[in-house]
Amino acid sequence: MRISTVEQMRALDKRAIEVYGIEDKLLMENAAHALYFVILKALGNIKGRKFVAFAGPGNNGGDAITLSRKLHSNGAYVKIYLMSSPEKYKGAAKMNYEIAKRIGIQMENFDGDNALVRMSVENADAIIDGILGTGISRNVEGKYAEAIKIINESAKLVFSVDIPSGINGNTGKVMGTAVRADYTATFGLPKIGNVLYPGFEYCGELYVSHISFPPENYEDDNINVFINEPIPLSPRKKDGHKGSFGDALFVAGAGNYYGAPYFSALSFLKAGGGYSRLATAKSVVPFIGTQGREIVFHPLPETDAKSISYTAKEEILKIAKNVDIVILGPGTSLHERTQKLIEELIGEIEKPIIIDGDGLTALSHNTSILKERKYPTALTPHPGEMSRLTGKSINEILNNRIEVARNFAIEYNVILVLKGAHTQIAMPDGRIYINMTGNSGMATAGSGDVLTGTIAAMYGLGLDFEESVRMGVFVHGLAGDLAAQRKGEDGITARDIMEFLPEATKLLRDEYENVKDRYDINVV
Ligand SMILES: NC(=O)C1=CN([C@@H]2O[C@H](COP(=O)(O)OP(=O)(O)OC[C@H]3O[C@@H](n4cnc5c(N)ncnc54)[C@H](OP(=O)(O)O)[C@@H]3O)[C@@H](O)[C@H]2O)[C@@H](O)CC1
Ligand SMILES: Nc1ncnc2c1ncn2[C@@H]1O[C@H](COP(=O)(O)OP(=O)(O)O)[C@@H](O)[C@H]1O
Ligand SMILES: [K+]
After folding, report:
1. Whether the CB of 228 sits within 6 Å of ligand 2
2. What value of ipTM does the predicted structure carry?
3. What are the tens digits of pLDDT across the range 495-506?
4. Whole-number CA gyration radius for the chain
5. Ligand nearest to the CA of 62
6. How is domain 245-515 classified at the CATH fold level?
């Protein structure tokens, strides 16, 4: 499914009206009906139920009034609080306001927090939030903030129109304060702010309605943000040998960094990869060797600090010639000579590579080396590593995740995986995939190392490089979700995520459609 910006949504609206003659009145009717449907689904019968609706000054308020009229028509009691003078309503919103007035639906101006408003809210079964939608243009203050506070303090079921009021539709950021909804129905396409955190969490259960736009209305290459749907795996070759499922070289580890090489190299096997080679400082081998017997070790000369020595370069290049994919950097340390080695390997390895962890720090000294690469490259930074790569502050990255990831991917011709809740995967042609699997239990040491192994495994299973990165991110999050389901989010470790990789891959093979649907946005 495509995800739009606020501006793109406006253009789609305009196109629907101008090209197909789907007037704004119809769009508003459809929008209100979509949320009405969600309410029915949540509450069952609405006859005799009490609703309080907060209607803002724009079309979001118009939607809330239109919805109120539907609730009224079907036997519910509705009271509307108008956030601003109804003189402001235009077009469909104005028409619906006037209908509601004629029908005699109770409407009052909201003049700020007072006992009467709180009492209505207290007596209601549910709240409709139509204060602000995608037209939010500044931080929420004054009586708008007061209304949001009343809603959030009410402990009632809250249904948000399009997007919880106060959430920025382009970034998902809270603009001062925002409604915490139980359900949100968004219209046309989901907006980026519905899908990125924290907006996604504020939406509660998220639904999308296409409000009768024809599907071709969305066929626009400029709308290039997508939900990261899983990619079907082709059946395993029955007569396959370990070489049939990929041969991966992990250049990873240093003295005191045993976890990263272990988790990345072993996760490759756990997710379905065939042959896992770990090239690491020689004194690391005895520590991991006993636990990771499935891994093939290439002990390398080391520095005084027990990191991989620069002199290992030719040997690594030689091994790299015979593998399918190379992973550079998990736990290779910040030793200056080792960093130099990794930096040069990035430029010289003629295979697809994934750069993670300390490899990203090595790269950040000279990002232009990426432009010399003739083979596919993926980078998997968390926001801290992204900050090192771009020189931007972490806040700047968090506030513009999509644009920062996209610009880097385009400029350096790489696939950039910006990790975190709902990881963004940016492609060199500007497409972005937002990943929906995973949970906060995965914010645990070593979890990122499991990811690199999983991506490499997908390549081993025969997906192309771009698909492997997308599917690796999906499977890694799914394994984390399975671990959370079984053990609870609090205690998940990288080992748990790794241990659930076989089940995650199996689930995707056996129940592909179910898994895909579970992580898609529900359509109403
Ligand atoms: N296909 C679709 O998606 C369809 C979308 N539809 C609906 O349209 C909605 C978008 O409508 P919209 O453009 O009228 O904007 P909306 O969010 O109602 O607010 C604008 C008003 O709020 C004001 N305002 C802004 N910030 C403020 C603040 N912090 N504090 C206080 N006030 C603030 C702003 O004032 P101004 O900035 O002009 O001073 C202006 O008056 C969309 O979310 C969906 O519900 C459906 O009807 C049908 C199809
Ligand atoms: N709240 C969250 N929801 C979903 N996934 C998360 C969340 N927090 C972290 N993750 C995932 O967990 C992994 C953490 O990786 P990283 O930050 O590199 O940790 P480490 O360096 O400790 O391995 C990433 O894949 C990231 O997307
Ligand atoms: K809203």
Report:
1. no
2. 0.96
3. 999 999 999 999
4. 26
5. 1
6. UDP-N-acetylmuramoyl-L-alanine:D-glutamate ligase (3.40.1190)
